Amino acid sequence: MIAVHVRVSGKVQGVNYRAFTRDKAKELGIKGWVRNIPGGGVEAVLEGERKTVGKLLRLMKSGPAGSMVLGMEFSELESKDYEDFQIEY
Question: Which amino acids are annotated catalytic?
Fold first, then answer.
């Protein structure tokens, strides 16, 4: 199990990016959260098996229709055993 903090830049607000990330995370069994950040980006914490976290990162790079991901930065964190995957406000 790994945990990753991700920051995504580009056109990722106002295009259902957070809901897309939440839905894909739940499909893959990944726990954590996603939220908008000031300046137009999105950040998330993804916790799960290395292979499925990698798959979600690839999906996040593509994003939903209408989004345009220009950059992604991520770093590994210590796992916190999240219970679910949520959109934070």
Answer: 18, 36
